[in-house]
C-alpha cells in the first residue's frame, strides 16, 4: 500500500507539473518576444530604420500569444477532474482578469522553476497538434495519416455494430473520434498528460463551440510573410458531440504496455497511426497487440520508424529496420494481408513554412488467425 501511495503521489506531482507548464506558456512566450525586441533595439539605428514595421508586428504577435493563453485557460478549467474527480488541485485566485483565468495564478507569480525546455516544448506541440487533429487546415495531413487506416477498417468491418476498435497513441483523439462517429465502439489510449488534457477539452468541454488560435505565432524562423506567422486556425472544425448513441467511446490514460498487459481477445481492431515506433521494445508491442486482438482481428498501422527513445540516455530502445519488423510480426503469428508505401506524409506541419519534413511511411494490415 505504501508503494502504491508513493506512486500515486509521484503521478500527481507529474500531472501538476504538466498543468504548470501550460500555465507558464504566456510568460515564456512573452519572454522570448521581449528578447526579439531587445535584439532589434541593439541594432544600429540605420538598420532599425529599414524595419519600421518591426515593433508594430511584435504587438500583433503579443496579441496572438494572449489569445493562445486564453485558449489554454479554457483547457485547464476543471482539469483536476482528469486526475481525480473527487480531489481538486490547489489554485490561487486574483481579480486581475487580464492575466488570469478562473482560479489561476497571477502571471508575475508564475515561475518556470522545475520546468525543462522539453516541458515547454510539449505545450507548444500540443497547441500545434490541434491544427493536425481538429482544424480544416489539418485535413490534408489527416487524409494522409488517418484515411488509409479508416478505409481499411470500414472495408473489413462494414457494419460497425459491436466492433471494438483500439487507437493506441491517440494524441488529441481525432482518429478515435472518427471511428466512434461512424458507430464503432472505440477506445483511445494515450500516455502523454499534455495530450490527455487537450483531448479531454476538445472531446468533452467544447460543446459545439469553436476557438481561434494562433499556433505559429511563436515561430520566428522560416516565415515567408508576417501574415503567415500570425494567421489564425479555428478548432475544432467539427461538432465533437455527434457520436451515435449505439457507439461506446472513451479515452484511457496510461502506458500502453501496462494498461493492456492482461487484456486477451478483447478488440477486433488495433488502429495505430505513428505508434509502433514509440515503443522501448517494438516486439513487446507486437506481442501485446496480438494477444489483445480477437481471433480474426486486425492490426492496421501507418507510420515511420523514428523510434521515440532513440539516442535518449538511460532509455532502452530497440531500433530495427522495417524488414525485421515485418519478420517479427509474422513470427508472432500474424498473417500479412496488405502492405504499401505512403510517401510524403507530414506530421504537425506548418504548410506555409519554408521548411518541411515528410516521412516515407509504411502502411500494413495484419490479421490474427481465427485458429
Task: Give a summary of the structure in a few sentences.
Helix content is 42%, strand content 16%. It contains 14 helices and 9 strands. β1, α9 (174-181) and β2 (185-190) form a beta-alpha-beta unit.
Give a topology summary.
Layout: H1 2-23, H2 25-41, H3 45-49, H4 54-76, H5 80-83, H6 117-134, H7 139-145, H8 147-156, E1 164-168, H9 174-181, E2 185-190, H10 193-204, E3 211-213, H11 226-229, E4 233-235, E5 249-253, H12 256-259, E6 267-273, H13 282-292, E7 293-303, H14 322-332, E8 335-345, E9 359-367
Parallel strand pairs: 1-2, 1-6, 2-5, 6-7
Antiparallel strand pairs: 3-4, 7-9, 8-9
Helix pairs in contact: 2-4, 6-10, 13-14
Give the overall shape, derived from the CA principal axes: globular
DSSP helical segment count: 14
The profile of the biggest β sheet is: 7 strands, mixed
- Give the overall pLDDT as a whole number: 92
Helix percent band: 40-55%
Distance linking N and C termini: 42 Å
* DSSP summary, beta strand count: 9
What share of the residues does DSSP label as strand, in percent? 15-25%
Amino acid at each position: 500500500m505504501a508503494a502504491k501511495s508513493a506512486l500515486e503521489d509521484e503521478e500527481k506531482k507529474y500531472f501538476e507539473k504538466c498543468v504548470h507548464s501550460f500555465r507558464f506558456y504566456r510568460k515564456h512566450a512573452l519572454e522570448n518576444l521581449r528578447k526579439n525586441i531587445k535584439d532589434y533595439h541593439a541594432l544600429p539605428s540605420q538598420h532599425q530604420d529599414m524595419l519600421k514595421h518591426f515593433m508594430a508586428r511584435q504587438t500583433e504577435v503579443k496579441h496572438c500569444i494572449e489569445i493562445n493563453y486564453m485558449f489554454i485557460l479554457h483547457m485547464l478549467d476543471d482539469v483536476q477532474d482528469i486526475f481525480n474527480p473527487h480531489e481538486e488541485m490547489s489554485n490561487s485566485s486574483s481579480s486581475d482578469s487580464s492575466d488570469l483565468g478562473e482560479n489561476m495564478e497571477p502571471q508575475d507569480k508564475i515561475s518556470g522553476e522545475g520546468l525543462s525546455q522539453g516541458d515547454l516544448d510539449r505545450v507548444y506541440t500540443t497547441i500545434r497538434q490541434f491544427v493536425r487533429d481538429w482544424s480544416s487546415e489539418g485535413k490534408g495531413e489527416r487524409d494522409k495519416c488517418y484515411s488509409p487506416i479508416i478505409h481499411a477498417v470500414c472495408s473489413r468491418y462494414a457494419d460497425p455494430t459491436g466492433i471494438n476498435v483500439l487507437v493506441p497513441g491517440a494524441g488529441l483523439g481525432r482518429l478515435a473520434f472518427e471511428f466512434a462517429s461512424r458507430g464503432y465502439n472505440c477506445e483511445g489510449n494515450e500516455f502523454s498528460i499534455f495530450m490527455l488534457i487537450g483531448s479531454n477539452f476538445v472531446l468533452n468541454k467544447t460543446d459545439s463551440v469553436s476557438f481561434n488560435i494562433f499556433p505559429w505565432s511563436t515561430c520566428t524562423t522560416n516565415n515567408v510573410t508576417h501574415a503567415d506567422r500570425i494567421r489564425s486556425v479555428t478548432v475544432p472544425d467539427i461538432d465533437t458531440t455527434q457520436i451515435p448513441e449505439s457507439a461506446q467511446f472513451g479515452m484511457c490514460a496510461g502506458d500502453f504496455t501496462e494498461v493492456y498487459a492482461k487484456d486477451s481477445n478483447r478488440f477486433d481492431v488495433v488502429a495505430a497511426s505513428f505508434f509502433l515506433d514509440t515503443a522501448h521494445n517494438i516486439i513487446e508491442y507486437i506481442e501485446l497487440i496480438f494477444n489483445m486482438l480477437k481471433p480474426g482481428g486486425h492490426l492496421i498501422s501507418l507510420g515511420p520508424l523514428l523510434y521515440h527513445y532513440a539516442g535518449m540516455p538511460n532509455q532502452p530502445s530497440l531500433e530495427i529496420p522495417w524488414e525485421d519488423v515485418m519478420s517479427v510480426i509474422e513470427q508472432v503469428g500474424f498473417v500479412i494481408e496488405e502492405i504499401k508505401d505512403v510517401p510524403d506524409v507530414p506530421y504537425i506541419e506548418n504548410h506555409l513554412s519554408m521548411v518541411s519534413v515528410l516521412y516515407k511511411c509504411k502502411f500494413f494490415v495484419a490479421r490474427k488467425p481465427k485458429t
